[in-house]
């Protein structure tokens, strides 16, 4: 084969595309109940947006972005995540939303990261995300996490686990960093080269290292929550209490940080034990500084993104895929010219009645037409041969029972097809 899809990308073939589409629609329906509106932004942005939002010393910005110069010599980056673009659009166009106590947006589409491809980790992957901008209330954290669980529940995914932590704010983050540096200081030489680099530039990122050897060193790390300032601690406790009130199961993971620098206070991940190493299907948290970082007024916010590729893997493993409806209802066969014209009129009527049909373009023979109909997994065939044209009849064959009958009008045929 001459060309294959680029490393780390894949084609979503029709069955998988249909599962994606249905899953997305279902989740958007749930988000709608929580008053989220869809916002669609470009797939690429000025590189500076992500450098600023995600953080210069994150793995994403340092190693994973698809950045190039366009023909006008601008530095462009294929989006590695969705939040930065939503905030950019919010500040650029949505002043009416800025009046509201909270503005809620949802987005869906491909994201691009130059990562090492493996199961559940691709260079082009799909996220369905939400951003709620404007409220500092811990109830926003709780509502958004409830929505994530509700969304997964609606698909039948019931055994996912929420891991939650607080990464503090501008006041307590320096204390957390110092505490971490102190703990890691004596073992830093044993950590991977990336972690040694992080130790200098972005110590909190160390905890996000995917290297299992590094992870073993982090057990027994002093808990971050002990270093939280009063405001962050109160916020965290309130979130946990309210999750309890709402019967949401969670585990506090004191080493949970996220791969993006903009998070403050609450961070969380929803994990599925079915996925092995790449087990996070949803990740997010609060980001109270990002809007100001990108030039707006200081505005608190909370969001998450679901990794659709991994979510669909879970659905497949649990045999919970939505029905894909790729089969057709009626295969329509008309051989002679007059029959062809009639069949086209019949198909117009069928389609206006929401019946999915396909035409037998080959026009070789009725038996070959039936074979084609079976390839398309049609339930019925409509046959207009010489006899039917002569007697002004329409033959309808049930391709499961193989029984057939002739009718005088399309209305009668419709009745049978609709059952
Ligand atoms: P991970 O820890 O697995 O690298 P992350 O912390 O980088 O994830 P986020 O940036 O928070 O993930 O994105 C949210 C979700 O998007 C993840 O929970 C995951 O389901 C999905 N995701 C992230 N990166 C990839 C990827 N390269 N391929 C497939 N899905 C991904
Ligand atoms: Mg990652």
Features:
five-stranded mixed β-sheet; 16 strands; binds adenosine-5'-triphosphate; binds magnesium ion; 2 domains; 16 helices; BirA Bifunctional Protein, domain 2; 419 residues; alpha+beta
Summarize the structure.
The chain contains 16 helices and 16 strands. By secondary structure, the chain is of the alpha+beta class. The strands form three sheets. Strands 1-5-6-11-10-9-7-8 form an eight-stranded mixed β-sheet, sandwiched between helices.
What does this structure look like?
The protein has 419 residues and is an alpha+beta fold. It folds into 2 domains: 249 residues, 2-Layer Sandwich (BirA Bifunctional Protein, domain 2); 89 residues, 3-Layer(aba) Sandwich (Rossmann fold). The protein is 39% helix and 21% strand. The chain is built from 16 helices and 16 strands. The strands form 3 sheets. It has an 8-stranded mixed beta sheet with strand order 1-5-6-11-10-9-7-8, with helices on both faces. β12, α13 and β13 form a beta-alpha-beta unit. α1 runs antiparallel to α6 and α6 packs parallel to α10. The protein is elongated and about 90 Å long. Bound molecules: adenosine-5'-triphosphate (ATP) and magnesium ion (MG).
Sequence-ordered SSE layout with sheet pairings:
Layout: H1 14-33, E1 37-38, E2 44-46, H2 47-54, H3 59-64, E3 66-69, E4 75-78, H4 83-93, H5 95-98, E5 103-112, E6 124-133, H6 138-154, E7 161-166, H7 173-185, H8 193-201, H9 212-217, H10 230-245, E8 250-252, E9 264-271, E10 280-286, H11 290-293, E11 301-307, H12 308-317, E12 330-334, H13 337-352, E13 357-359, H14 366-375, E14 380-384, H15 386-391, E15 394-398, E16 404-407, H16 410-418
Parallel strand pairs: 1-5, 7-8, 12-13, 12-14
Antiparallel strand pairs: 2-4, 3-4, 5-6, 6-11, 7-9, 9-10, 10-11, 14-15, 15-16
The chain binds adenosine-5'-triphosphate (ATP) and magnesium ion.
Residues 81, 113, 115, 120-122, 125, 127, 258-259, 278, 280-283, 305, 307, 309-310 line the site of adenosine-5'-triphosphate.
């Amino acid at each position: 084969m001459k060309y294959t899809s680029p490393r780390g990308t894949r084609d979503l073939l029709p069955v998988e595309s249909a599962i994606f589409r249905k899953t997305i629609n279902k989740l958007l329906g749930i988000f709608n109940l929580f008053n989220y509106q869809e916002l669609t932004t470009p797939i690429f942005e000025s590189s500076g947006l992500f450098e600023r939002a995600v953080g210069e010393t994150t793995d994403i910005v340092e190693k994973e972005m698809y950045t190039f110069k366009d023909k006008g010599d601008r530095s462009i980056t294929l989006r590695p995540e969705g939040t930065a673009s939503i905030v950019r659009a919010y500040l650029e166009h949505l002043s009416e939303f800025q009046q509201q106590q909270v503005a809620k947006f949802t987005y869906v589409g491909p994201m691009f990261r130059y990562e090492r491809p493996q199961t559940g980790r691709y260079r082009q992957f799909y996220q369905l995300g939400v951003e709620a901008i404007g409220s500092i209330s811990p109830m926003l954290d709780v509502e958004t996490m409830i929505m994530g669980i509700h969304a997964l529940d609606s698909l039948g995914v019931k055994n996912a686990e929420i891991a939650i932590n607080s990464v503090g704010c501008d006041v307590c983050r320096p204390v957390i960093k110092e505490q971490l540096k102190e703990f890691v200081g004596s073992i830093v030489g044993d950590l991977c080269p990336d972690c040694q680099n992080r130790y200098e530039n972005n110590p909190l990122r160390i905890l996000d290292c995917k290297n299992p050897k590094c992870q073993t060193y982090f057990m027994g790390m002093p808990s971050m929550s002990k270093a939280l300032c009063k405001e962050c601690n109160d916020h965290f406790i309130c979130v946990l209490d309210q999750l309890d009130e709402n019967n949401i199961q969670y585990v506090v993971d004191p080493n949970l940080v996220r791969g993006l620098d903009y998070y403050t206070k609450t961070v969380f991940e929803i994990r599925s034990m079915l996925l092995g190493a790449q087990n996070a299907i949803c990740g997010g948290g609060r980001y109270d500084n990002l809007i100001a970082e990108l030039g707006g007024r200081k505005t608190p916010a909370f969001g998450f993104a679901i990794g659709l590729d991994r979510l669909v893997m879970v659905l497949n493993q649990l045999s919970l895929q939505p029905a894909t409806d790729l089969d057709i209802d009626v295969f329509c066969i008309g051989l002679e010219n007059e029959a062809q014209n009639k069949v086209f009129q019949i198909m117009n009527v069928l389609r206006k009645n929401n019946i999915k049909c396909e035409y037998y373009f080959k026009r070789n023979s009725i038996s070959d037409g039936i074979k084609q109909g079976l390839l398309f997994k049609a339930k019925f065939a409509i046959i207009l041969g010489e006899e039917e044209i002569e007697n002004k009849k329409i033959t309808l064959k049930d391709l499961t029972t193989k029984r057939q009958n002739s009718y005088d009008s399309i209305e009668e045929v419709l009745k049978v097809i609709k059952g």
